[in-house]
Amino acid sequence: MGYGISRLTLYAVLSAIEKDIKNFVVLYLDGQKDIPSLFNPDVINRAVRRMENELGFASEYSLESLLPYVDFGDLYSVINKNRRLLPDSFSQHIRKETKKLDSLVSIRNRVAHSRPLHFDDLSNVLDIGENLAKSKLANWENTRNTLKKLQQNPSFVLGLVFPIRDSSDPVKHNLPIPDFDETGYLGRARQVDELIKLCLGPYPVITIVGEGGIGKTALALKVVYDILDMPECPFEAIVWTSSKTTRLTPTEIVRIEGAISNSLGIFQSMSDELVGVASDNPLDEVIQYLKEFKILLIIDNLETVLDNRVTGFFKKLPNDSKVLITSRIGLGAFEYPYKLSSFSEKEALLFLRALTKIRGVDSLFKISNKKLVVYCNKMKKNPGFIKWFVSAIQAGSRPEDVLAKSDIFLEFCMSNVYSYLSKESKRILRSMLCLPRRYSQAELGYLNDINSLDLQRSIHELLRTNMVIMSSTPTGSSFESQYKLADLARHYLAIQHPINAKERTLFSKRNKQLVAAGEQIQAEQIWNPYSFYRLEMRSRSDLIIAKFLLDALKEAKRGNHEQAEKLLVEARRLAPEYFEVHRVAAVVKVQQGNYSAALTSYEAAIDLEPRSAPLRKWYGSFLLRYMNDVKSGLEQFQEAAKIDPESAEIKIEIALANLYLLQFENSIEILENIIGHSELNFLALRKAYDIYLQCFYRKADALIQQKDLFGSLKSLEKLLEIYSSCPAHLIDPRIKGTIKKAKDLTSHYAKSGNNKIREHAAVLIDAFSDALAQSSEIVLPASMSSDEMDMNIRKFGHITALKGSYGFIYADEGEKLFFHMSMLTNHQTWYNLRIDDKVSFVLGKDNQGRFLAKNVRLE
Questions:
Q1: What residues have CB less than 8 Å from 265, skipping those under 6 apart?
Q2: Mean per-residue pLDDT of the chain
Q3: N or C end of the chain, less CB within 10 A?
Q4: Is the pLDDT assigned to residue 374 strictly greater than 80?
């Protein structure tokens, strides 16, 4: 679903005001009363229900956790309700501003629920926001900062993402966002009321008839949205379909590629929306649904597909369902035609004024109303003509020059808009014309070799001139903003400014490089999904962001934190809604020791992608190891296990958390199942044995505190048994350390007054001594086959030793392999290698037939 700049700007300011009010509630009322005393029961019930729908639970909640689910109007109402608990000056300030805040409720609902905006919504919100920001009686910090950012860089709103919530609409629909968001819906209130009555009346088919650009589509959308928002909407579903097949160019009518071009396509589109699957006979499917359910169908630009099939369809319409049509041609006997005329003089003037103000066209805005009315009349008060007229003036043309050629206004407006554009904006248009499809910001930046700030400024410019259309595509649990060349702009450029051979070669080359870079990043992805260096990709454009993120991780690992931050800033600007940006930022912050910032980044990542098991695992590990919050860490591991119940990595983390919570039996049970039934890689298996041994050591220690000496010795005996069965190549200094501590613990029993305990302890001490004396040197299995030395088979492991110009690798299968710095795929990597770095390699042999690692690559 696409959102215009006006709606995004409204969302930014309203969200800032709402956030400030929430902060006031927490600041002044948290702890003053319990929640039931602060809010009315219906407010609490509604908020709790929303919390449960989003989080899946709401058994316990605080004021701060409940506030995100409280309606906007209830936030300042609770302040007024409890004004005696507040400072007098602040209380009076909120009471004084309540009427203005009340006016924001309906605007906020229109913004949040994708409803048509009113023409004065943006100006009203900005005026109220500016007045609040200037107040000295309350600190409207977020509002002030947002308005400042809008003034300095209006295009920052392009990076905003609407929160994803389940639709609250009681009626299923597929209505698009209106294309009049820039100014909001203006005028024609009488026509809206009349058409609503017609749609609810006895007529099965109502057609809005009028010339091109007159506003038929806008009026139809406004009417249908108003019907949708009726307290008791009479329809069970509302289905929108469009058959626009052509666009007017300066010299001809040009067909839109891929558009619905016949009535069968229209019926198939309706059937797909109603049934959800393709149908061999879509017309009959639609008729059947109209009989079984009360449905409102809207067909935009029907004149392009009128044929016998359409007239036959209208003959079969059942009584309760309705069809609303926009068309330049009436249907005759089957319809109630509603003739739409141009704007009234007042509406045209208001529309022209609103456009010039929003677009900042001062040269036109300062002209007197008397002169502007003359302009509107010369443009036949046609909304489409007025919009392009303002675009031409914005591009630097004189009003008289534009109006002198009204018969070719489309050509003139488009050419002047194009000449007004910056060099970067034109370059972006050229790339989109050469390679027509939807693009993310990251892809456009790569294709045109433009940094993120210049890119956003250019996109903002293109959106303002209506040459590019923005939409949002669901990706995972979030949205990805995408951009495509507007149909009119594409046809105009193709005719007036066609791509030359040099440009085609350049952009085709960049596109191939883009694809190759993506393929390389995919090929180099760490095999383990639970590695810090493994990135989850939502779409092709994420591959570009992945390059920034992987480079940021490498720079942070080398200690180049400033460079890592620069890379993260660029990634965040290009894809603020991509959760991996925030997850990697958290990893970098941890390496810097900034745990508070890391926590914030992890929380932002979880908000964007709560269904990522690796993310939950990483977040849980962070809480466990750096925040010492074992219970919260365990909760994250458990959420990860719900998503990926077979993951041994997650089970090991759950076992570790249980160990820290002294839930030894839970931990032991998990680890026994893992070690006995899972095929783990080397590192995971070693970690599992490490925790497994620690369970029995800590259990033995705990039993001593409980005076259960026999139980403690039994636990130590079990520890020794596990150690004896542990594969030799898994035993490292950490595991040996656990055995040493176990031996030291056992030595306390040697002085016991109980002969049995003393004798048992002596036996265990000898056994522990023997175990510690054994070598854990790893040897390569002699059964290694020559097939495994195929250069195409890459193995994985980690660096275990670095000496001079060579080192050793522990392969995940348990081999210990020699490698020389010359065996690295990139020799410069040698100077960045660290112990425990993950690497991949292929097997080889030296001159004496001994196995070694070759083509070593840092992962």
A1: 243, 305
A2: 80
A3: N
A4: yes
pLDDT digits (tens, 9 = 90+) for 473-526: 666 656 677 888 876 577 668 767 888 898 888 888 888 877 776 666 666 555
Q: Can you give the pLDDT at residue 582?
A: 93
Amino acid identity at 127? D
Q: Containing H/E element for 255?
A: strand 253-255
Nearest-CA neighbor of 746 among 731, 730, 758, 734?
758
CA-CA-CA-CA torsion for 173, 174, 176, 177, nearest 10 degrees? 50
State pTM to two decimals: 0.48
Report the first-to-last Cα separation within the chain, whole angstroms: 38
pLDDT of the residue at 840: 86
Tell me the C-alpha distance between 732 and 86, whole Å.
62
Strand residue runs (E) in 333-444: 336-339
pLDDT in tens, 779-821: 444 333 433 344 446 788 888 888 877 888 888 766 788 888 8
- Could you write out the DSSP letters of every residue in 696-729? HHHHHHHHHHTT-HHHHHHHHHHHHHHHHHS-GG
Tokens (6 digits) for 206: 């109502």
Q: Work out the number of other CB atoms within 10 angstroms of the CB of residue 265.
A: 16
The pLDDT value recorded for residue 231 is: 85
Taking alpha carbons only, the member of 61, 42, 41 closest to residue 51 is 61
Only one residue has tokens 């605080």, namely 62
Could you give the CA distance from residue 79 to residue 85 in angstroms, rounded to a whole number? Answer: 9
How many residues does this entry show for the chain?
859
DSSP letter for 540, please.
Answer: T
> Secondary structure of 289-315 in the HEC alphabet?
HHHHCCEEEEEECHHHCCCHHHHHHHH
